[in-house]
């Protein structure tokens, strides 16, 4: 269920500030490595080493991508001893990723939704 401020559904205007923030968030999905990191974290939280192995990247490259994703509010990190375990910031990030996958599937299958009269 979508929600805005105080749990209400939000389908309001997108002003310049909100548009800029949305564009920055969507830009995070413009890099396949970041999408793969988010997809892996969708299944469960894990540390950098496990992420690096799962997405077939060097640990330093994964760490760099995680910094970007943290800055954009898409992932969080929690220190556990000497490690930091990363997870999606919240269920909205998983929903965003799911919607992107559903959209790609619809485009591939040629299933546009009919336009409605305004």
In short:
This protein has 118 residues and is mainly alpha-helical. It contains five helices and three strands, in the order ααβααββα. It has helices at residues 16-28, 32-43, 48-55, 59-71, 91-109; strands spanning 46-47, 75-80, 83-88.
Structural key phrases:
single chain; 118 residues; mainly alpha; 3-stranded antiparallel sheet; 12% strand
Describe the structure.
- The structure is a single chain.
- By secondary structure, the chain is mainly α.
- It is 55% helix and 12% strand.
- It is built from 5 helices and 3 strands; from the N terminus they run ααβααββα.
- The chain has a 3-stranded antiparallel sheet.
- A hairpin with a 2-residue loop joins strand 2 and strand 3.
- The protein is globular, with a radius of gyration of 17 Å.
- The N terminus is likely disordered.
Main sheet attributes: strand count, strand direction, barrel closure:
3 strands, antiparallel
Mean pLDDT, all residues: 88
Compute the number of helices: 5
Query: Within the largest sheet, what's the order of strands?
Result: 1-3-2
Count of DSSP strands: 3
Element string (H = helix, E = strand): HHEHHEEH
Q: Helix/strand-derived class?
A: mainly alpha
Beginning-to-end CA distance, first to last residue: 25 Å
Radius of gyration: 17 Å
The shape is globular
Helix percentage: 55-70%
Low-confidence stretches: 1-8
Q: Beta-strand percentage? A: 5-15%
């Amino acid at each position: 269920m979508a929600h805005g401020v105080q749990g209400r559904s939000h389908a309001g205007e997108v002003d310049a500030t909100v548009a800029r923030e949305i564009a920055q968030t969507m830009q995070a999905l413009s890099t396949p490595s970041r999408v793969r990191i988010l997809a892996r974290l969708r299944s469960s939280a894990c540390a950098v080493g496990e992420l690096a192995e799962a997405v077939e990247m060097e640990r330093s490259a994964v760490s760099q991508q995680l910094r970007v994703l943290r800055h954009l509010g898409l992932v969080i990190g929690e220190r556990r001893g000497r490690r930091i375990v990363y997870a999606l910031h919240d269920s909205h990030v998983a929903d965003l990723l799911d919607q992107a996958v559903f959209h790609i599937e619809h485009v591939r299958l040629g299933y546009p939704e009919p336009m409605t009269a305004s």
